[in-house]
Amino acid sequence: MCTSDLCAALTALVLSILLGPVLIRWLRSRQIGQAIREEGPKAHQAKAGTPTMGGVLINLAIVVPTVLFADVENRYVWVALGATLLAMLIGAGDDWRKVARKHNRGLSGRQKLLLLSVVGLAVGAASLWLLDRRPDPTGVSIPFLKTVHLELGIFYILFAAVVVLGSSNAVNLTDGLDGLAIGATLVASATFAILAYIAGNAKVASYLLVPSVPGAGELAVFCAAIVGASLGFLWFNAHPAEVFMGDTGSLALGAALGTVAVLIKQEVLLVLVGGLFVVEAVSVILQVSSFKLTGKRIFRMAPIHHHFELAGWAESKVITRFWIVAILFALVALSTLKLR
To answer: Most C-beta atoms within 10 A of its C-beta, which of 15, 16, 24, 257?
Structure first.
């Protein structure tokens, strides 16, 4: 018999592969296609009309295996699922407005920021008051410096909200090339599956000097479901993509990773686990800040994956090399388990 996490990953993969063609046909029949930003790379204009909102498939492939193979009485699992589904609804609303308007602008940035902040605050509040078995609920550990400990008190709720909000937006910004975001998500979720297992195992956590969170081991099943769902969706999202995840997928996946990081007390380590997402988000921040302050752009276009496209890299080369970067970040994150 397979373990719960392996069964969850396999079930998510099979669901994605089987239901993918059905969803794609349905999206095409309803003309739910992607609008492409006019200022983007010219080669992307050919992608206009590609079915979007494929994140529905991803989330279905995450939820079903998690409910089947995780402990349904475990509160950590329900907090993670709740945050993921709420972020999915926000993304779906954004995608639907884009489709209805036949334009690449859906919800305003302020609206998405507000709604995702509510989700993040809910995760932070749940981590303090709902998850009463979690030790040191308001403390933050620092990778490589395991003896350094930050105590945030009630401000931990705001910190958790920033983690979830930042993660969700960073994955959203990365979703600009075929398979890029989902491949990086696969790497990050696999890493968090390992970290969740360690957090839930008191002996291993004690040996590695990382926070022990009784019951958090069940989140390894949730993360494994994300791995399987990501791999299955990549089958259809690989270049040239047959379907896009849209904000329905990217916001939900980012929220899922951020929530897991909060629940297993590896909030800061998320910066390394999702290092590629951080680079993408920082490139946008730097670009906007530079243009507002000096009137000049640092990159040819942001997020940074478009910069390399405009520099002459083929889309497939950008994607593959960025996946390698994501793997390197994940390996560095795992190295913190032994390095001080």
So the answer is: 257
